[in-house]
Amino acid sequence: MKLFSLSVMSTLIAMGLASAEVKAEASPHITGVNLGYGTQEYESRDGERWDAGDGFKYDIWYRYMLTSHWGVELSYGQGTGGAYSAMFDILSDVRELEYSNYRAALYGQYNFSRGNSVYAKAGMAFSDITYDLDDSRIKEDAEGFFGAVGWQHRFHSGFGLGVEYQYTDLKQLEVQSINIAFSWQF
């Protein structure tokens, strides 16, 4: 009986160590959402630049980590005018500016302490831009550079929380925003 108890206890300890070993290896799959607020500036086809005011935006994204420091990210996002834009649209020639975009980016991170890292993203954004100009609804396609830098904390549960600065230059539309990032590593 003593040998059986010792055998069962050894098996349980081995299983516990093996599961701790598996848990220590991070999954390469991460998904998340960013909620942001920032500025928008628009350039029309005839070259005139308009301050399109402030804007709210969100991104839903998926990241696959190739290594512990490098990954690729795919995203879908939308943005529209904010509180300032809503109040002062009547003074601007460009009104009701909205956009949606798909993004592909390379991702790199540096872990500076347990659970904390700084990161950067660089890639391309492909967008549909819609706005009102001179009582006409105009829709345009655009593509351009996307970049971001940020800080995140990853908890043991896989939940991540961070702050990120994003810059998107679509030639016609330049968007800068500060975002709160929520993510889940699964």
Automatic annotation (TrEMBL):
Signal peptide region: 1-20
Keywords: Membrane, Signal, Transmembrane
Entry keyword annotation includes Transmembrane: yes
Annotated ranges, domain Outer membrane protein beta-barrel: 11-186
Keyword Signal: yes
Name the record gives this protein: OmpA-like transmembrane domain protein
